[in-house]
């Protein structure tokens, strides 16, 4: 069983829409959750971190965490073509991060 | 003013050769990591160092040997390169060894073994 699961996509949304990216994890002891954005040929870039249940908003991005359901999501409001990238969910596992395989997001004009 | 830098950016070499990748961070972080990203984009940790001390060694072949001369540098030496070593290798750093500390990645080194 994969430790961090994401739908590989692609998730296609029109410009201006809300993109919803989901991630589930298996380790109930995990306490830190991160979303990274990776453009093709580039390195992962941290965009959100969340540590407690509920929502955390930063600009157009909102991270949501539900530890009981072992579920973390990322909402991107007013999606732009420049948001087109692969989004990696990462979850702590004791002393390391476990990454999901990423969801490819495509925002079309 | 790069926070985490790696050299070289591209590395093309033949099977059996030995090569090194260098990483430096100027963030003042205590912890550094090496990750491997395969062709399917799966990102997996290989090693972590905290203040020059090896903390994580994730079932990586002995041909891979990390070295941390100081807490701002973490190098990766690979002996007897194999075709399966072809991947993108990322260095990363964080203020301290997890739990809550965010990791920042270098630009990556694309290794191609022919």
Number of E-type strands of chain B: 11
- Secondary-structure content class of chain A: mainly beta
Please state the structural category of chain B: mainly beta
Strand content of chain B: over 45%
How far is the N terminus from the C terminus of chain A?
Answer: 37 Å
Could you tell me how far the N terminus lies from the C terminus of chain B, measured between alpha carbons in angstroms?
Answer: 34 Å
Structure description:
The complex is a heterodimer of chains A (109) and B (114). Chain A is mainly β and 109 residues long. Helix content of chain A is 0%, strand content 56%. In chain A, the strands form 2 sheets. In chain A, strands 2, 4, 5, 9, 10 and 11 form a 6-stranded mixed beta sheet that branches. In chain A, strands 1-3-8-7-6 form a 5-stranded antiparallel beta sheet, with no helix packed on it. Chain A is globular. The mean pLDDT of chain A is 94. Helix content of chain B is 0%, strand content 56%. In chain B, the strands form 2 sheets. In chain B, strands 2, 4, 5, 6, 9, 10 and 11 form a 7-stranded mixed beta sheet that branches. The relative contact order of chain B is 0.34. Chains A and B meet through strand 4, strand 5, strand 9 and strand 10 of A and strand 5 and strand 10 of B.
